[in-house]
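Retry 2 of 3 after timeout on previous attempt. Resubmitting structure tokens to design endpoint.
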């Protein structure tokens, strides 16, 4: 049986999705997203053999790190932006902080801090196209649990000073994500 589990960080991102979805709000940040994703998958599919029929859809807003990047995107790669891989490798510690999702989409950088311009944004723009606070954690949990993942992000802002008005800007993201979902080939009503 094919099942769809929708994960989003914040209720403002999901307000226009159709009713009846199996929807879990993870909360903001990587720790909350990792725990809630793991709980949600294990609650629905405690037996690893049953997980081949489950697809996790992680939807949400993201900040653009490239000028002109807007709309809905499915990232092809995710990096954990909180890990200093050069420093760890120099210390002889192996690092696995890149997840390949496939496709031709942008690179998503995930970390626990909110990006609102400045040197942090500039440094991230050198290695990624989008920034969020949960994608990496959801992807790692899904990979560890053997669950299919589809990730969809809408650009809510330019990860600059204007990003501080996220609560106002996310209205557009919620509408665009719902439109994307309605046009997708995903089931809209929980377990099938």
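Retry 2 succeeded. Sequence:
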């Amino acid at each position: 049986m094919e099942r769809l589990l929708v994960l989003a960080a914040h209720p403002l991102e999901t307000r226009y999705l159709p009713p009846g979805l199996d929807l879990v709000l993870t909360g903001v940040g990587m720790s909350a997203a990792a725990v809630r994703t793991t709980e949600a998958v294990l609650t629905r599919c405690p037996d690893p053999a049953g997980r081949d029929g489950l697809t996790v859809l992680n939807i949400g807003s993201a900040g653009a790190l490239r000028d002109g990047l807007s709309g809905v995107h499915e990232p092809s790669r995710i990096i954990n932006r909180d890990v200093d891989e050069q420093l760890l490798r120099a210390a002889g510690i192996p690092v696995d902080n890149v997840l390949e999702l496939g496709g031709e989409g942008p690179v998503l950088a995930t970390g626990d801090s909110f990006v609102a311009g400045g040197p942090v944004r500039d440094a991230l723009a050198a290695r990624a196209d989008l920034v969020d606070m949960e994608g990496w954690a959801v992807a790692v949990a899904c990979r560890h649990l053997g669950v299919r993942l589809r990730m969809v992000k809408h650009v809510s802002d330019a990860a600059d000073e204007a990003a501080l008005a996220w609560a106002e800007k996310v209205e557009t993201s919620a509408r665009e994500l719902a439109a994307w979902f309605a046009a997708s080939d995903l089931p809209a009503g929980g377990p099938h």
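Attempt log closed. The chain has a mean pLDDT of 92.
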